[in-house]
Specification:
Elements: H1 2-20, E1 27-29, E2 36-37, E3 42-43, E4 77-87, E5 90-92, E6 107-108, E7 115-120, H2 128-135, E8 143-144, E9 147-148, E10 152-158, E11 161-165, E12 179-184, E13 190-191, E14 194-195
Parallel strand pairs: 2-13, 3-14, 4-12
Antiparallel strand pairs: 1-11, 4-5, 4-7, 6-7, 8-9, 10-11, 10-12
Length: 200
């Protein structure tokens, strides 16, 4: 009987540890004093950041489905998120025409603004990992789109609330007007919040 009780308590202890050691919500309030959210929104323009990647090699393309992302049929469902990549404090411009090679994929970019377009025939969920698959670039803990650096941190901003995503970056969902910032190496003084163009 004593042995059974010990085993029972051991199972409970293991379950409690798993729930508190990485099994919970990966979205956590940022407590990094080096990173704060800028109170003054940045207007999203057609070109944000410094050139780094070549636009002509921006899309994995080909017309075949990529990581669950197909060619769009129509725009019955159309939302926008925003992606920023910072390397040692400098914003790198996200290439235009990602996902527009071979066909117009359900996730794509039009310009160098960092706006991610999700255009589908019906409401669907897409993630950051799928975007990087369409782009044909890496999303790793030590390398993002060929940019190497440590540390790498990822933040999401929803309605001026900034959260750090500590695990499963690939699973971050694109939602309307969500901004995602990937920070490689030395962080910028402030992470941007954005004012969106009229109509998006």
């Amino acid at each position: 009987m004593k042995k059974l009780i010990c085993v029972h308590f051991s199972i409970i202890a293991i379950a409690m540890c798993l729930s508190g050691c990485g099994g919970g919500n990966p979205y956590q309030e940022s407590n990094d004093p080096k990173i704060i959210l800028n109170d003054t929104p940045v207007a999203i323009k057609n070109y944000l950041g410094e050139p780094y990647w070549k636009d002509e090699s921006a899309s994995n393309g080909g017309g075949n489905p990529i990581d669950g992302v197909g060619c769009l049929l129509n725009e019955n469902y159309h939302i926008h998120s925003h992606l920023s990549i910072f390397y040692n404090g400098t914003r790198l411009a996200i290439p235009k025409n990602i996902g527009l090679k071979g066909c117009a994929y359900e996730i794509h970019t039009h310009d160098n603004s960092g706006i991610i377009h999700i255009e589908t025939d019906k409401e669907k969920k897409f993630s950051l990992g799928q975007f990087f698959s369409v782009w044909g670039k890496s999303l790793l803990s030590t390398e993002v789109a060929g940019v190497h650096g440590i540390p790498i941190k990822v933040y999401v901003v929803d309605e001026n609330s900034m959260m750090e995503v500590e695990t499963n970056w690939a699973g971050i969902e694109f939602t309307p007007h969500r901004s995602i910032s990937i920070v490689i190496g030395t962080p910028p003084a402030k992470l941007p919040s954005y004012s969106w163009p009229t109509g998006l």
